[in-house]
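REQUEST FORM: STRUCTURE PREDICTION
Request ID: SP-0412
Submitted by: Lab K.M.
Chain count: 1
Length (residues): 379
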Amino acid sequence: MTRIVAGESAVPQRKRAIEAALAIGLVLLIALGAVVGSTVSRNSEAQAVEPAPAAELKLGYFGNVTHAPALVGIKQGFLAEALGGTTLSTETFNAGPAAIEALNAGAIDAAYIGPNPAINSFVKSKGESVRIIAGAAAGGAQLVVKPEISSAADLRGKTLASPQLGGTQDVALRAWLADQGYKTNVDGSGDVAINPTENAQTLKLFQDGKLDGAWLPEPWASRLVLQAGAKVLVDEKDLWDGTGTGKPGEFPTTVLIVNQKFAADHPDTVKALLAGHAKSVAWLNEAPAAQKAAVINSALQESAGAALADDVLARSLANITFTLDPLAGSYPRLLQDGVEAGTTKQADLSGLFDLRPLNEVAAATGSTAKISAAGLGQN
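STATUS: Completed
RESULT:
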């Protein structure tokens, strides 16, 4: 029934009733739309962050024998095969800090690198930039000098080189000189001048008599000894007694790192990379010497533009241990060396390592030994 009030017709009343009903319906539709929209939005966001294999993995490495797991992994196809449908693209670098810059800028996703640049990136980003996911090489670094230099006492006033300021050999050189009582500064001044120089230039400058020595990774230490008449003043393996690692004479020279966001977005791709990396390390430890030398030299020809003399390559390989263990227990010392050298700041390294995917890959091959993060991450 429609109630009619004096002076008012039934039509406006019915009109207002219809309008009110329409308004209520519109509110309900809007509310329902908001609920549906919210649900769709949440589902879309969940789908957007769902981990999936990457379309491409951009990998950085150096044309050094200490990066042989990368050289072999690329040359023999171990990495590309393990990555499956993910395209592998590569870029070569001369030293760690440059590779870190590229990784932080998104130009590469993962890299074979020395431990100190990895530490520096982790410290500067407050733990947000990189994770160390495996070891690659231990050993293979020496301080080589002119023949007339017979002890640390002869180095005062001399000029030495390292591959790059803040790199692993640069920090090792500065730390060792400090232990000998010398002061060095990052600007090149001090009791001993340190000139960060590209390795190929270091060889030429030493041959020209413009450098007194250099702390170098392989094959450059061997090249200066065998091709430029240098002699070994310090073999870095003699400075490591196994404290923290239980492996005397072994120290990390090359590790495999990954951009933290890339690892979170593409865990399956990281695990695939590690599978290829593990195959490369195993091959390096099992292949006959002649086959190993041929493959590494072919890879160096492609990545660095030149193969090595047989004696240089043989000496280099004799100084290096290829291993999946990043020797995490050595990192407190590496950090302290960087602090004292003035190339990094004191920091907590907890979270630097994520060795869970590596240990899963190792377990899949039948290994029962778990590689340790030494309390600095997950394993």
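NOTES: Confidence is low (pLDDT under 50) at residues 1-48.
Reviewed by: T.R.
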